[in-house]
Amino acid sequence: MSRQQPRNQSQEQGYQKACELLHQCRTRVGFLASPSNNDNYRRIWSRDGVILSLAALLTDEPELVESARETLETLARHQGPHGEIPSNVDPAANRISYGGTTGRVDASLWFVIGCGEYWKATGDRPFIEKMVPVLEKIRFLLGAWEFNNRGLLYVPQAGDWADEYLHSGYVLYDQLLYLQALRTLRTVHQDLQKTVDHALQDRLARLKHLIQANYWLHDGDGIPDDVYHEILYKKGREAAPGCAGRYWMPFFSPTGYGYRFDSFANILVSLLDVADPAQSEAVDQFIEDITPQELALLPAFHPVIHPPDRDWKELQMTFSYTFKNKPYEYHNGGLWSMLTGFYVADLARRDKQPLAEKYLHGINQANALVCDGQKWCFPEFVHGKKLIAGGTHRQGWSAAAAIIGSQALQGKNLFRIDHD
């Protein structure tokens, strides 16, 4: 881990503005995704709420830490009958959603991770003891979501944060969250029960091995040990020869591999100590190649899907209310502060300070953009070509990105649960 680095004036301003927005997201029942007037965002979202909570825990500000606990308690109170954690809770209308056209697999995964991180950061033993029955129901549900009991979660279309993108099957992003959730469950069990859960330990080891074997395509004719499906792996390598050895594949399904670069997954695979150093270096180079020179922010996915492309027609059909994934917007090549914050955390822990500072500067540039005549609008994403603010303004997890990145450069670890 890097030594603590003093913040320059730009970093300090970005950090303070981000903390101010996190305070504006606070309610008596947890963090809103955004305090803006967009009703859909004035809710306690599991995914957004935990990411805001991870940032809050790094600040050591008592009010923000308290909101992290309240966020998790609100989500736990509305756990579904099978163990599922809500996608979001509307505290004003007392409405609970477990997803739109399908459920959200990552909602439960982020919740487990959030509970462990809050407990580790605060030492709040009564909290984690109260959460044990909630966590056990989630653990059972996650096992059921493997469907075939072969170690990987199966994620339906629109089943995670890429909810209107072409992304389904054995999605790498969700497997990585699953890995960290299982690590959290192992740590909770060992601390409270003072024993080792060998079945859980075996599941953890197998999952990590499955990720390493199935999502990094290797050049040549050899097949790694323990591939999920040998024919699928061979077909994936043949279909995307330019991807082998450059980055981790986003998903595979019964119909084959996806090949677009998934920034969140490629960040997490390094941040959670699954990638080896050479793999992380290759991904760094790929990110450098696709990052706009004018603004150091990561796209959600790359390359962009355009109207002539084979996938364009299907993408146009994938939305809940209105089509958002136009070229260079939202998941289709939009640039995200939130994702970049996790990348800064990974770069800092790998002692790549100059590169981490470059991307933190990009986050602060994006967060400071002007919207409706107001500077520091914290946009949801930035248009990948025009570099203008897009989506909902005053987005809490864009603020969380600045906090996560800044505190990582101060030497703080984003995740406290052991990765061994």
Automatic annotation (TrEMBL):
KW Signal (keyword) present: no
Pfam families: Glyco_hydro_100
One Gene Ontology biological process: sucrose catabolic process
Superkingdom assignment: Bacteria
EC code: 3.2.1.26
Molecular-function GO term, any one: sucrose alpha-glucosidase activity
Entry keyword annotation includes Nucleotidyltransferase: no
Catalytic reaction equation(s): Hydrolysis of terminal non-reducing beta-D-fructofuranoside residues in beta-D-fructofuranosides
Keywords (A to Z) from UniProt: Carbohydrate metabolism, Glycosidase, Hydrolase
Matches recorded under InterPro entries: 6-hairpin_glycosidase_sf, 6hp_glycosidase-like_sf, Glyco_hydro_100
Family membership: Belongs to the glycosyl hydrolase 100 family.
Protein name per Swiss-Prot or TrEMBL: beta-fructofuranosidase
Taxonomic lineage from the root: Bacteria, Pseudomonadati, Pseudomonadota, Gammaproteobacteria, Thiohalomonadales
